[in-house]
Amino acid sequence: MTETSARPALLPRPAEAAFHGGAALTLSAATEIAADAASAGTAAWLRTELGAATGWPLPPPASGALPGEPPPRIVLAVDAAAGLGPEGYRLRVDGRAAHVTGHDPAGVFYGAQTLRQLLPPAAYRRAPLAAPVWELPRLEIQDRPRFRWRGCLLDVARHFLPKHQVLRFIDLLAMHKLNVLHLHLTDDQGWRLEIGRYPRLTEVGSWRRESQVGAGPAARFDGRPHGGFYTQDDIREIVGYAAARHITVVPEIDVPGHSQAAIAAYPWLGESGELEVGREWGIIEHVLNVSDATLDFYRDVFDEVMELFPSEYICVGGDECPKTQWRASETARRRMREEGLADEEELQSWFIRQLDAHLTARGRRLLGWDEILEGGLAPGATVASWRGTEGGVAAARAGHDVVMCPTSTAYLDYRQSASDEEPIPVGHVLGAADVYAAEPVPPELTPEEAAHVLGAQVNVWTEHMDSPRAVDYMVFPRLPAFAEVVWSHGARDYARFRPRLEAHLERLDALGVEYRPMDGPRPWQRRPGVPGRR
Ligand code: ACM
C-alpha cells in the first residue's frame, strides 16, 4: 500500500465497502471532531491518537457560525434506529466530512478505528512525521461483527506482563476490533492479583526463584527470580482503560488444578504441605483440597474479583486437574461419601458447582475450560472448548453457551512454521493461514445449537514467552488473521487476505509491534539452543 492509496487495506474486512472515487477529503490542522454525548469517549480517544500522529488539536466545532468555508470535519454519532446492528457502524466520507454513525457507542468506536485505517500508517505513530498527506478516500462502509465474543486470552501468570504492556496489548486488541481480554491471572507458577484478605497470595505467590527455559527433557532452569503482580488499583485502571475501548476484561482464577502458587502462599489449601511456587511448566499434581475452608477462601477471593471486574463472565479455570492427590485424600473421600459422588470427576464437578452457585447468586456467569463437562456441567456454566471442538459441541447441545478456542486453530503458543528457526517451538504448526482458515462454529451443530456459540478466542500461554517482545512475535501476525475470522462475514480466502495482511504490517511497524515477518524470524527473534517439543 502506498501512503496515499485510494483503497487502503482494511483489516478486518468490512461487511460492505463502496469506494466512490473523486477528490478525497484532505484533513488539515483546522479539522474538527464533532460528537454527540454518546460518542464523547470515542471523540476523546480519536483526538488523543490522531492528535499525537498529526500534531493537530482536533477540537470540537466552535460554537456560533464562523464566516467562510467550514473546515473538514469528523462527525461521530450514535443512531440506534439506523439498522446497523449491535456494535455496527456506517462510515461515509464525502467532500466535506467523514461521518461515523454507530448503532451504539461501540459501533462508533469501531467506525473510528476503520477511519484510522483509511489514513497512512503514520496515523499509528505518536508524533508527526514530515508531511504525510492525511487523505480520506470518498466511500461508504457499512459494517458489523459476526460474533459477540471476539477474544484473546493473555497468560500473565507464567510470565508477568507489566501493567503498561497490558494497556498496550489492549490497544492492539481494540485496533483489531476484538472485545474480550481473558486475563489468566493465576497458575502454578505465579499469582498476579492483589487480594486484600489474603496478602500472602502476592507476598509469596507472585514470584518464583527461577524458571524452566525450554520444553522437553533437555529443558534447564535459569536461576533467575521472576515475578510481579497487579495491585487492585492497577486492575481498576486496566479494566477502565479496556472499557473505554469497548473491551471486557474477563478474569480467570484457575481452580482446583493449576493452583500451586496459592498453595505455596497458604499450604492448608492443598494436599501436600509446604510447597514453593512452581518453577517448571506442565501439568502439576499438586491441587486444591475440597475442604469447606478452601471453598470459603475461594468464595472470598471471587468476591474481591467480582468487585474489581464488572465482567458478566468470571472464569474459574477447571482445566488439567490431576486426580491423584484426591484419590489418596481422606478429605476427598469424605466429601464424595457425604455428597454421594461416584468418582473424582464428579468431585471436581461438585467443586465447580459450589463456585457456580456463588457467582450466579451475585448475577455473574461461570466460564470454565471444557474439563468442567467431565463430571456433569454446572447449571450456569459457559464452556471454553480447548481440547478440540467436542466440548463445545456437547455443551451447546446441552443448551450451554460456548467460546471456541481449540488447540487446532487457537493456540498462539504453538510454533508458527515447521522451521527449526522458530523460537522454542512447541505444539503443531499453526501459521497465520491456519488461524485464518478456522471456522468457529462446528459444522455438526444445528442452527439452534450454533446460536450458543458466543464466538471464539485465541489463547496466548506464556510459558515460553519471557518478554513482551516474545509475546509480539507469537501474537502477530496471527492475531490480525484471527480478527477477520471473528469479525468478518462471508467466505475467507487466504490468498486474497495476505496482501491486506502485508499492508497491515506497516501499521504494526508504525506502532513498534515486533511481529514475526511473513518469511520467518529475524535473527534476534530466534532462541538457538533452547529446546522445544513436538
Ligand atoms: C488449557 O490450555 N489448559 C486451557
Instruction: Give the CATH topology of the largest domain.
Output: TIM Barrel
The total domain count is 2
Q: How would you sum up the major sheet?
A: 8 strands, parallel, barrel
Task: Write the CATH homologous superfamily of the largest domain.
Answer: Glycosidases
> What is the spatial order of strands in the main beta sheet?
9-10-17-18-19-20-21-22
Shape: globular
Distance between the termini: 38 Å
CATH class of the largest domain: Alpha Beta
- Fraction of helical residues: 25-40%
Strand content: 15-25%
Number of strand elements? 22
- Radius of gyration, taken over Cα atoms and rounded to an integer in Å: 24 Å
What is the residue-mean pLDDT, rounded to a whole number? 96
Based on the structure given, which CATH architecture of the largest domain is correct? Answer: Alpha-Beta Barrel
Ligands bound, unique? acetamide
Low-confidence stretches: 1-5
Structural class: alpha/beta
Q: So how many helices?
A: 17
